Amino acid sequence: MSGLGSYLAIVNPAAGGGRSRKMLAPALERLRAGGVAVDVAETQDVGDATRIARDAYGRGRRRFIAVGGDGTSYEVVNGLFPDGVGERPTLGFLPLGTGNSFLRDFSDRGVEHAIESLVAGQTQSCDVLRLRHREGVIHYINLLSVGFPADVATLRARRFSRQGELGYVISIFLGLARLHRRPFPVRVDGASEFDRRRCLFLTFNNSKFTGGTMMIAPKAQVNSGLIEYVRWGAIGRLGLMRNLPKLYDGTHIEHPLAECKAVKRVEFDLDTPVDVMVDGEVLTLHCQELDVLPGALNVVA
């Protein structure tokens, strides 16, 4: 180990269909040539990145690099919090996985931008969103969604995970065929009543993008101290097909059935657990409350 002052790169070698492992050596060589000290730890199974990050933080590490996709970053973040609330950690990225939505808020140049930012030591504060659910707590920095995006992500994860981008497209069209609009009762910022209207989806965002290039929350800012809440009402199948391209440029929020607002706190009143998509990961959770840890993380971006 080169010491606590170096970055610990937590590598998911399976990310991007194994591309992460193939691209790692030249990326690390460029970082070290630029004066960035890096130690490396590889994951072997789901949850390893969380465990590695938590153990390293407990030993005094404060600088980390998530090597993989959004799912790897999600696991690392959950290893840093809630401990990271005490002393702000720094998280950089080597986006070598399939989906790297979070970094698109800063650049569409992927690995090149990430390496340049790490070499330059280019950091900024970033909020961390905290979801309390019946079984515990999770933290995230990109977005959490229920409804159509979560249905698509769940379908892809369970049936088409090996088809890459094609699997995502197939899942979108199957999601359209099965279109399920239902209520997800929520109350924002202490409103007098829960909103129990049927909807296509609800999404609770810290950054703008999901699915790589889908701009689900065009007004989101990673250090606003607020949750960007986007709701799309019970649009029909034909209407969704006509408006689907607008999810990629952010103009879907102009639709009459769409709502977008910045909030501090969200409460849920769900009867049962639901499928959620959080930072590229698919989980089934009985959501209870969502809030923000303002500026709790430094990101290198």
In short:
The chain has helices at residues 19-33, 48-58, 70-80, 110-120, 148-159, 164-177, 237-243; strands at 7-11, 38-42, 63-68, 90-95, 123-133, 136-140, 143-147, 182-183, 186-188, 198-205, 209-210, 214-215, 227-233, 258-263, 266-268, 274-278, 281-285, 287-300. With 301 residues, it is α+β, with helices and mostly antiparallel strands.
Descriptive account of the structure:
This protein is of the alpha+beta class. It is 27% helix and 33% strand. The protein has 7 helices and 18 strands. It has helices at residues 19-33, 48-58, 70-80, 110-120, 148-159, 164-177, 237-243, and strands at residues 7-11, 38-42, 63-68, 90-95, 123-133, 136-140, 143-147, 182-183, 186-188, 198-205, 209-210, 214-215, 227-233, 258-263, 266-268, 274-278, 281-285, 287-300. Strands 1, 2, 3, 4, 5, 6, 9, 15 and 18 form a 9-stranded mixed beta sheet that branches. Strands 7, 8, 10, 13, 14, 16 and 17 form a 7-stranded antiparallel beta sheet that branches. A hairpin with a 3-residue loop joins strand 11 and strand 12. The protein is globular and about 55 Å long. The mean pLDDT is 92.
